Amino acid sequence: MLFEGTMNFTLILSAPFSLLLPSKSLLLDLFSSLYPFVFCSLASGSSGNSYFVGSGDEGVLIDAGISARRIVKSLAENGISMAQVKAVLITHDHSDHIKGLPVLANKFRLPVLATAECLGGIASHYLTKEIDQELFQAIRPKQKIILAGLEINPFKVSHDGSGNVGYHLRNNQTSLTLATDLGFLDEEVIFYLKKASAIILESNYDEEMLEKGSYPYHLKQRIRSSTGHLSNADAANFLKKHFHQGIKNVFLCHLSQHNNLPELAHSSALKALNGNGHKLPELIHVLPRSNATTLFHL
Ligand SMILES: [Zn+2]
Ligand SMILES: [Zn+2]
C-alpha cells in the first residue's frame, strides 16, 4: 500500500484542545463500538463552502466559508448543536472557505486546524486576521489526527491557495474523503478517494460553458490550470477509471455558479458509471450551492 507507511505519525496536541494522542486503549475505545457516521453540506460552491462530518454525537466542520449565523442555523436544523462541534478543519485560505471563521472560531472557541502555510494565510487575510491565534493548530499532510471519534488524515492537493489539503475521515464503520479546490487528481488524492465509502469530489465547471462564458481569458486559464479546479469531465474520468462497489455515495461539490449546472454535473458522472456497467444513479448527489442538505447517514 503506497501511502500506508507514512500514516503512522500522529499529531500530539496538548490541552485545552480536545485532540488526543491515540493510545492503544483509546483507539480500542474509539473503534470498538458502532457509531453512526453522518455528513451534511451547509453550502458548496464558489460563494461559500462548509461541511459537517460526525461520528456518534460529536463531529467537525470542514471549512467555514459562509456566515457563522448560517452555519449554526443549518446545523441546528439537522439537530446538531455547536457543543457537538469539536473543531473546524480548513482546506485552504480562499475566502469562500474561511469568511465565516472569525465569528465562528472566536465565539465558540473552536480550534482551527489547517497547515502552517494556510494558518499564515488566514492570519494575514483581511477577512480573518481578527481570529484569536491561540485557536490555531497546525497540521501536516499525512499526519494522522484523532478527534471527535474520527481518525482524520489530511493530504496535499494542487491548488493556488496556501498549504491546500483534502481530508480523509473515518470511524470504525465507514469513511469519507473530501477533495475540493484542486487542479488535478494525483496518485495520492486518488488513493484517498478510492479508500473511502463516501467521496465528496469537486465538479466545478462544464468545459463548454467555461469556454463560451463571459469570464476573461486569464480567469478561464486559471480555472483550467493544474492549480485551479476540477471539471465535470475530470470528476467523471475518476469515476470511470476508479469506481468500485465499496464506494456507496458520490457527492459532487463546489459547482460554479456561472460555468456549470447541477444537471450537467450529474449526467456527466452518471454517464461515466453507466458506461462502466454500474447502474446506480441514486449514489450520485449534487450538493446545492446555497442550501444545506439534510443529514446523510453513511
Ligand atoms: Zn473554493
Ligand atoms: Zn480555492
Keywords:
single chain, 298 residues, alpha/beta, Metallo-beta-lactamase, Chain A, 7-stranded mixed sheet, 10 helices, 29% helix, 22% strand, binds zinc ion
Describe the structure.
The chain is 29% helix and 22% strand. The protein contains 10 helices and 14 strands. The protein has helices spanning 24-32, 68-77, 95-98, 101-108, 116-124, 187-194, 207-212, 217-224, 232-242, 262-274; strands at 37-43, 50-55, 58-62, 85-89, 112-115, 136-139, 145-147, 150-156, 165-170, 175-179, 198-202, 249-253, 284-286, 296-297. The strands form 2 sheets. A 7-stranded mixed beta sheet has the order 6-5-4-3-2-1-14. A 7-stranded mixed beta sheet has the order 7-8-9-10-11-12-13, covered by helices on one side. A hairpin with a 6-residue loop joins strand 1 and strand 2 (50-55). The chain starts with 23 loop residues before the first helix and ends with a strand. Residues 1-10 and 12-26 have low confidence and may be disordered. Bound molecules: zinc ion (ZN) (2 copies). The site of one zinc ion (ZN) has 5 residues, from loops.
